[in-house]
Amino acid sequence: MSHNGHDGPIVFMENIVKRFGTITALDGVDFEINRHEVMALLGDNGAGKSTLIKILTGVYPPTGGRIFFEGQRVQIQSPREARALGIETCYQDLALVNQMSITRNFFLGRELIHRVGPVRWLDVGKMDAETRSSLREIGIDIRSPTEKVGKLSGGERQSIAIGRARHFGAKLLILDEPTSALSVAETRKVLTYIANAKEQGLSVIFITHNVHHVYQVADRYTIIRHGKKVGIYNKGELTLDDIADLIAGVREY
Asked: For each successive 10 residues of the chain (253 residues), what is the average pLDDT?
């Protein structure tokens, strides 16, 4: 497989092994995602999905295997290094500060500062405007960028995280169970934002054990079970029941 430049996958993880003491969490897993695609990473709890992503995002070092990002071999040793490459992760519990506004959450750690001589202050007007326009690009109209994040619904909170990743130049967005705690209507909204983020040029890894949620937006599905890859399947190749059976290990293909 060639790993050169821009025609290959944005991420290629080859033969990834992870052991914790005597326990093998991942046993030679290959994983890839192309540019501008939504890749579902499916498996039951304990299948190894989170471990694989923690290796990709520099939380854990792999015991074995290689990672390529945009065709270059990389050693990702911390979440900061992952972010510097353009890999942004939105975990289930979303690192949003309830007491702060949408804008302040959007720019968390990346605030725009005005300086006049020794005086520095936050350029709130510019941040508010950027927040509003950036969210609008993925289909979200917020009531007010000054509203506190604590007042937002689960779907809206996810949307802030997706919009923020895109605004700050993420190339790959990893969503960890983004719909697990949401109602049907909220889930539908989040799936729309994900589809819009893809249209805007992001690659998205959607980690879930809920086949129904991801079925509408995923271009491909990677299924893992007991730390091994079961397979990669294209949209339309399998029915919902097929996928559920593969996750559960009821049958092989």
From this structure: 63 97 96 95 91 95 97 94 91 71 87 88 91 86 85 83 86 90 88 89 91 88 95 91 89 58
Are the C-beta atoms of 65 and 14 separated by less than 8 Å?
yes
Distance CA 223, CA 121 (A): 49
In total, the chain counts a number of residues equal to: 253
Instruction: Look at the chain and report how many structural domains it folds into.
Output: 1
β-bridge partners, 68: 12, 73
Region at 112 (left for phi over 0; alpha for psi -120 to 50; beta for the rest): beta
Task: Please name which of 202, 222, 214 lies closest in space to residue 89, comparing C-alpha atoms.
Answer: 202
Q: Which amino acid is at 188?
A: R
Residue 207 burial by CB count (10 A; 0-12/13-18/19+): exposed, middle or buried? buried
Largest CA distance in the chain: 69
Domain annotation covers residue 253: no
Q: What are phi and psi of 169, to 5 degrees?
A: 80, 20
Structural tokens at position 21: 């003491």
Please state, in angstroms and rounded to a whole number, the distance separating the CA atoms of residues 131 and 214: 27
Which tokens hold the place of 36? 């501008």
Tell me which residue range forms the domain holding 36: 11-248
> From start to end of 75-226, where are the E strands?
87-90, 113-116, 119-122, 172-176, 203-208, 220-225
Whether 138 is in a domain gets the answer yes
